[in-house]
Structures are given as structure tokens and as C-alpha cells.
Specification:
Elements (H helix, E strand, L loop, with lengths): L2 H13 L4 H17 L3 H15 L8 H14 L10 H13 L5 H17 L5 H13 L3 H13 L9 H14 L3 H7 L1 H4 L10 H13 L3 H15 L8 H14 L1 H11 L8 H15 L4 E3 L14 E3 H23 L3 H9 L1
Helix pairs in contact: 1-2, 2-3, 3-4, 5-6, 5-7, 7-8, 8-9, 9-10, 9-12, 12-13, 12-14, 14-15, 14-16, 16-17, 17-18
Amino acid sequence: MDYALQIQKLLLRKEKLSSPLDRITLLKQAINLADAHNDIEWGFDLRLDLIRDEKDTSHCDESLPAFTWILDAYDKNPEMFDEEDFLWEYKWMLGSVRRNSSISLEQIESIAEDFKTRLLRNGYSLRPYYTAKAHLAFFLNSPADAKKYIDLRNQEVRDEMSNCRACELDDDVELEMRLGNLEKAITVGNSMLTKKVTCTHMPFSCYCTCVKYFMKAGDTEKALEYFRKAEADLAQLSDTSQISEIGIMIRFLTDYDREKAWTFFEQHAHWNVDSEDFLDFLFSINVLPLLKGEGSRVLNVNPSLEWYREDNTYDLKEVYNYYYKKAKDLAERFDKRNGSGYFGEQFAEAV
């Protein structure tokens, strides 16, 4: 059978599947066929499809090497492709390299500058570039730098490569929350928090941000208000990319409704399997307070979990130690990479 026909049949099968992981499996088979026949055009398009599907998961195992291949293919064959076709995905990859503890800050900065160059030569504004710089500043716990880049973002023209208004408002809310301006944050994000502007994960993700910061401020009433909003929206979401938000919800419930926290943990713990380093760290530190304690407990969890037992009975200390070790290791790796103690501080707060 002609390999192109085989690829088309795999794509038809893929369209009938809803699970990103199942779709990725078929895409990898199609990519292997394209590569075996040195078909660069098929390889290019199929890898873009793979990146788009993996974005709906908590991991980035396939996307980074796929995107590296795309960049190399374009740079070697610029006459065959349109650079604009992958600039949107480039924004996603900037987030992924930031969340990967094995990639140095110097590499991240270099990648960001390459993105900037490609934006400019295709006639786009630097609005998405400054957004990426603000996200890195949040990651490094530098709200002053985040504010600087958000101000620069706002001076740039909005175009089709810019993040949607809902996602930008999420950044604005995050900034005010980090600065301790909780009520101002709600005012700033009002149109998104009241769903006048939305996107796939907004305002769900922002509701969870509100839960986190109101919980830190000791305002249980406000935290509960936004938890309930997040819980209502969660019913409409199915992709595992929101695992860090699930962790925030579990952390809140640990103090507010512990049995419900266990239910959330049972339902969603497997979303964290093979997740990106940063998401893994956030989920791990947020479940530690729930798991802390002695004794055993029956848990109905997904068999894909590394610590799964067929009898469903778990020594809580063992499960706690599993997430403790992961969180501690990731905190050390990120702090070494970032040259700070911010992740260690978050870990210490959790334990």
C-alpha cells in the first residue's frame, strides 16, 4: 500500500478518537511512515498535529523533539514552508521549555530571542514575546519584572499571534495577586471572571489562582467562592493539562472538606502521570498536606499510577513519601537551574 494512503487512513482513524494519547499514538505511526520515506512535508504537518494534541495533556514528551525537527526542517528548506504556520505553537514551546528543569535559563532566553526574531520578520508585534517574558518572570518569582513586561506587552499592537484577551487578563490577575492586591486583581479581571470574555481554560484556571491566593491570605469565604466557580467549570473540562489547578483545589479541600479532597485525589491523581516537571512539582506539593499522616486507606485510583496496588489499600506514609521525594528533587533541580531558593521555599511551606 502507498505510504501516503496509509498516513491518510491513520488520520481518518485519529479523527474518530477523543483521547489525546490515543491520537498521538496514531500520529507517531504516521510520522514514522513519513520519515521512512523522507517526506518532509508530511513530517512537518503531522508533527504540528502532534503538538496540538499533546497540548491537551499534562506532559510534553513528544512536542519538544517534534518542534525542534520542525524548526530544523524550515531553516533548511524555507521555500517549502510558511514560517507563520508554526509561530503559534512556538508560544506553547516557550512555556514547555520553562517548565522543564533540564533546560537552562540561558537556553530559554536564547529560544525566546529566536521567537522574537521570527515574529518581527513575519510582521507581527512583540506582544506574545513580552507575554512569554512575563510568564518567565512569574516563574522566577519576580513580580516587578512581570509588571515591566506586561506594561511592555500593553504598548504593543494586538494581532493574530497575541494571546486572547481572557488569557492576558489571567496574567493581569496573577500580577496583582502576587503584589498582594487581591481586591484589585478581581476588579482588573472582572470581564474574564464573569465570563464576558473566555477561552478554553479561562476563567477556570484563574478561578483556581483566586482560590490559591485567598487561601494564602486566610480568606476562606472568598477562596470557597472561587473554588465553587472552578468546580462548576471543571465538569466541562476533560484534558489533563489542568493538573496543577487540580492540585490547588485539592489543597483547599484538605482544610475545608477533607473527604472531598480524597475524592478529588482519587479521580485526578493519574492526570499527573509523566507530567512536565513544573506541573509535577505543583501537584506534588499541593497533595502533601492531604497525604500527611499514618495508617492505611482504601483508594480507588487509576492503575497507571506508579504506586498503584491491586488491593486498593495504601500505606499513607508510603504514598506521602512518593510525592515528598518528587517534590524535593524537583525543587532542588529548579532552584539550581534558576539560581534561587524559591522552589525550596514552596516545598518547605507544603511540608
